[in-house]
Design brief:
Zincin-like; three-stranded mixed β-sheet; 3 strands; 33% helix; elongated; Metallopeptidase family protein
């Protein structure tokens, strides 16, 4: 009787579903490059830098970001807090983003609304009209 040689498993090109040995074509989804908080922070800091360059009184003022105010006031939920003694302005992200009445909810209008709130908060800090903060920029 002749003995059979032991069977050696041959390498296969395909697995059960035809995908063994292949690399993934699509990687797992990556986190977004900018989330809402980062976009809000960038918009506030850009507007604050513009105002600091334009107004000497705002050079030492800190612009901070908080999610929500501790409590509402008689006018409703505040969008910002002006602390003249502490030389700081606190912008409240959630009320600005969610309670503002924008004509369209796209990135441009969100950015414009955040910048408008920064200008209004700085104007309140300086006891001026928001339109007075950049008068030379807007006169052509």
């Amino acid at each position: 009787m002749r003995r059979r040689p032991p069977q050696v498993a041959r390498p296969t090109r395909h697995g059960r579903h035809g995908r063994v040995g292949r690399s993934a074509v699509v990687r797992p989804p990556l986190p977004p490059l900018e989330n809402r908080y980062e976009k809000f922070d960038l918009t506030v800091s850009t507007a604050a830098e513009f105002l600091r360059d334009a107004w000497e009184e705002l050079r030492d003022v800190r612009f901070e970001i908080a999610d929500m105010p501790a409590a509402s006031d008689t006018d409703g939920i505040p969008r910002w807090l002006v602390d003249r003694k502490g030389r700081r302005i606190v912008m409240f992200r959630i009320p600005i983003e969610r309670l503002s009445h924008m004509p369209a909810h796209d990135d441009l209008h969100r950015r414009m609304e955040v910048e408008a709130c920064v200008f209004r908060a700085a104007a309140e800090y300086l006891n001026r009209d928001p339109w007075d903060l950049g008068p030379e920029r807007f006169r052509f």
